[in-house]
Structure prediction request, 454 residues.
Amino acid sequence: MSFISINPANGETLATFPIWSEAEIEANLTKISAKTNVWAGYSFQQRANYMRETAIVLRKNKLQLSQLISLEMGKLLKESDAEVEKSALGLEFYAEHAEAFLTPQHIKSDASKSYVTYQPLGTVLAIMPWNFPFWQVLRFAAPALMAGNTAILKHASNVPQCALAIENCFIEAGVPENVFRTFMITSSQVAPLIADSRVHAVTLTGSTPAGQSVASQAGKYLKKSVLELGGSDPFVVLEDADLDLAVKNAVASRYMNCGQSCIAAKRFIVIDEIADRFLEKFTFAVNALKTGDPLMPETTLAPLARYDLRDELHQQIETALSQGANIVAGCHPIEGPGAFYAPSIIDNVDSGNSAYREELFGPVATVLRAKNEAEAINIANDTPFGLGGSVWTKVSARGEQFALQLECGSAFVNGMVKSDPRLPFGGIKTSGYGRELSHEGIKEFVNTKTIWVR
Prediction:
């Protein structure tokens, strides 16, 4: 059995990689285990130097790495370039701030001396997705490694070249061997790895069903887990919004990365009073998107990452249409080579429609109409997901009060939802638990230990 890397823009096979045997897993797990205490003994300054060097390697090889991302999972080259740069910034952020984040906290008590210290857990297993194949990995790895943990990456099966390229970047930067390792394993090989005593925690970014499975396995062995799962983010346009600004960001938030992002805007909740005007402007902008080779600068909408993902999306759309939704734009696969899907909008989606509750992971916007602000917040929160959300209004204070009522991990006023190393990131409800990034992210995989001295 092998992992096959396929270019989703034309269906051509790029490379194949053998899946590891149990013996290979055992041998490499033993090597990482032997390095765990050694890496934990490095100073923050030493680890920071390695992270900075890795950032240098990323930038030095940016063109090659960006092309690899675009070839292997299909996103626009300019988006891949931005992803590599963001990954480098994430490494530099934790190189600069990790020591301060994990400085022991002295607390007065009945002891002569008492404080809280933060110590690494050991080896963290990361199960990562294909949609941001570098950033998702580096935003986990930077804090985990800076905290003194070693790391195992089980990447998505369709991006094996990206997985190995990340490991090679660490190696080129001089990071000691077996501090960060890519394991070429399948999903069926994950459970025994979680059960192994040499793995101390697990983090997953992916679908809600995948998160439920990993959480169950981690819970069985009482191991810490962090889950960043699916989302169906509301994009709420109030009647006083700047429509041109809202539409510009609506297109970016929904169709960037061909809509394949957990924090992409997916449900466009618009007040009735301005819904038709918003939809007219939105449709015009969406119809102007151009599919094509993601390596070409004139292309503005990439293919989906795999053919099966396109087929699943189209089935969801056909079901939604059969339940009363209307086609405003697109809603069909594009003929010819590549996993392309037309940029799409559906309207007239009510609470009885499957598209009202399901996550549509692709270039399809769902429009929902609300009578007023109160109904808009009810619709926004009437979802099993709770990752992010945004609200658009000319009155920032009004938007802030609306944002406080959104049931999600990140709420933005007049801005599209995004991740930022300076700010904690994560969800609630079926969008997962725990936080990545900022000081909360680095503290997820440490032992917060109390020291009490008489």
Notes: Residues 108 and 114 are 7 Å apart (CA to CA). The chain is about 40% helix and 20% strand. The radius of gyration is 23 Å. The chain has a mean pLDDT of 98.
